[in-house]
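Checklist before submission:
- one chain only
- standard amino acids only
- sequence pasted in full

Submission:
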Amino acid sequence: MIVLTTSQIAPFANLSAETLQIPLKSFMEKSGSFINFNGVEQKFSPVTTIVESAVSAEEFVAVLSGQSLAAVQKLYANPIERVENQFIHQRGEM
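Returned file contents:
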């Protein structure tokens, strides 16, 4: 059994079946940005690193699909420029 988790889960470690816990980065270990309701980009940086070798869920899926981890990390280091979301300026009445 393969378990993707941000922290070690003791019950899985004690199973009689062979298990593999793969550490994923938690929200505190990631950086990124989002556009808020007012259309303002808000960036955030990692707060801490818990497991040095942890990967993000996106990186794990890319490697599982056959891409190299180095190529995926390079892609996320230089993200594609995003287009402004025009729909945030047109809200209906609630």
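Reviewer check: The mean pLDDT is 76.
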